[in-house]
Design brief:
Blueprint lengths: L3 E2 L2 E4 L3 H11 L6 E5 L14 E2 L6 H21 L4 E3 L2 E5 L2 H16 L4 E4 L1 H7 L10 E5 L3 E3 L1 H14 L3 E4 L3 E7 L2 E6 L2 E5 L1 E4 L5 H7 L7 E11 L10 E4 L4 E5 L5 E5 L17 H14 L7 E12 L6 E4 L6 E5 L5 H17 L4 H5 L33
Parallel strand pairs: 1-13, 2-3, 2-14, 3-10, 6-16, 14-21
Antiparallel strand pairs: 4-9, 5-9, 6-8, 7-8, 11-12, 12-13, 15-18, 15-19, 16-17, 17-18, 20-21
The protein binds flavin-adenine dinucleotide (FAD).
């Protein structure tokens, strides 16, 4: 079979793969082929809540997420204005030890230019007319945080990439992906493509793909859940997103007065091909209990649907974005620890700069704490431990 030629093959058309294809296509980069056995957004991207927050770990994370956010805002304004809105994001706790961590996080975030601040219980009550904040000892929020429709953003990236010449090979199983004669070769549906570089952007499937070519990286796929509820009366469209740090349940407003509630994160590894796709009764009951305590106005909300998706954790909770250690021409963008929607655009932009510059040192440096070369050496199994974190990253370089 004669092989097509490309400069880069991207494996995976979730928000990360589509954003990367878009960034490569809009730079002076050679031909790009994106392969996905399903369709754009069919993985975690099509199941995500879409909260985009700057209340993050370190300066690097904030900069990357800001880059995503401004790109999502611009793309949505042009192609689908319903796919992006700024609504703010608040967090609260009734536990004094968590309150201390929240206070420290505000100071840290201020240092990185994030407009986060302490909120009073009266302010919370004003923003959440359905809420009851008895016992809450601390709350913080950032007015600049946003929500997006992740599948719509992925689709916009894919269309932009396609319009700039990227070839999408979709909907057929992978026959083979392997190194051949110093290049990477991919075969599917009777077609073959070869390129000097390949990027694995296959979300929870990345672990198996990379191990299959003899270059394992430390990734642990795990299951997490969300549900859509319809309260009466409908929730206001400008409701901030919120995270109850005590029950770990978060909410965001959805169209038509509905609410998306999430968490139900499981700290065990799952197989992305065989995980349970529906929401668990225990997760729905946990959301109902949180609503009964914190949002009595929503306690009778109708459950529209509940589902699960598979995200991917790393040992240090930083993503993997950049060269795979010890593998010539092989790159990865995965392991977002449940924050992949908010980081994808910015991380893809940085990886595209590395690829387009031929691994220029300055561009590699901009991968910061996400550079996969931090895991050169033997790879050990580990349990996923993702989640919304209050602690700051402890690496002084970032
Ligand atoms: C319930 C839930 C809520 C979430 N909420 C948020 C949130 O509020 N904010 C946030 O930032 N993030 C959130 N996330 C996380 C976010 O969804 C992910 O981090 C992000 O979508 C990862 O994107 P991705 O492109 O890396 O992976 P995916 O979207 O999983 O895409 C991977 C793609 O790889 C493809 N693939 C599979 N096998 C192969 C193969 N062999 N070759 C090539 N391709 C292959 C799949 O078909 C899929 O299309 C949430 C996730 C879930 C499940």
């Amino acid at each position: 079979m004669p092989a097509d030629r490309a400069e880069t093959i991207v494996l995976g058309a979730g928000i990360a793969g589509c954003a990367l294809a878009f960034h490569l296509a809009t730079r002076s980069h050679g031909p790009v082929v994106v392969f996905d056995p399903q369709t754009p957004g069919a993985g975690a991207t099509g199941r995500a809540a879409g909260i985009v927050t700057e209340q993050l770990w370190d300066r690097w994370d904030v900069e990357v997420t800001r880059a995503s956010k401004s790109e999502y805002a611009a793309l949505a304004a042009r192609w689908d204005p319903t796919a992006y809105s700024v609504n703010g994001f608040v967090r609260w706790t009734r536990r004094p030890e968590v309150a201390d961590a929240l206070a420290r996080s505000v100071e840290r975030l201020e240092g990185w230019g994030v407009r986060s601040r302490v909120l009073s219980v009266d302010e919370l009550a004003a923003r959440f007319p359905s809420g009851r904040f008895v016992g809450v000892v601390a709350a913080t929020g950032c007015v600049d945080d946003a929500v997006v429709t992740p599948s719509a953003i992925a689709q916009i990236y894919a269309e932009g990439a396609r319009a700039n010449g990227v070839d999408f090979w979709l909907g057929r199983p992978l026959a083979r992906f392997a190194p051949v004669g110093g290049e990477w070769e991919l075969t599917c549906g009777g077609r073959m493509v070869r390129a000097p570089r390949a990027v694995v952007a296959a979300g929870a499937w990345s672990k198996r793909l990379l191990a299959g070519v003899g270059h394992p990286v430390p990734l642990a796929p795990y299951r997490t859940q969300a549900a859509i509820l319809r309260p009466a009366p409908p929730a206001p469209a400008d409701l901030p997103s919120a995270h109850d740090l005590d029950t770990d349940v978060y909410v965001r407003p959805e169209q038509n007065g509905r609410i998306l509630a999430g968490d139900g994160t499981e700290l065990v590894e799952v197989d992305p091909d065989t995980f349970r796709i529906g929401g668990d009764d225990a997760f729905v009951a946990h959301v109902a209990e949180t609503f009964a305590e914190r949002f009595p106005g929503w306690a009778e909300a109708e459950l529209v649907r509940a589902w699960a998706g598979v995200c991917c954790s790393t040992p240090d909770r930083h993503p993997l974005v950049g060269p795979v250690p010890g593998a010539e021409g092989l790159y990865v963008i995965a392991g977002f620890n449940g924050f992949g929607v908010m980081r994808a655009g910015g991380a893809a932009g940085r990886l595209a700069a590395v690829l387009s510059s031929g691994d220029d040192d300055r561009e590699l440096e901009r991968l910061g704490p996400a550079d996969p070369r931090r895991f050169a050496g033997p790879i050990a199994e580990f349990a996923p431990r993702p989640g919304f974190t209050l602690e700051g990253g402890d690496d002084p370089r970032f």
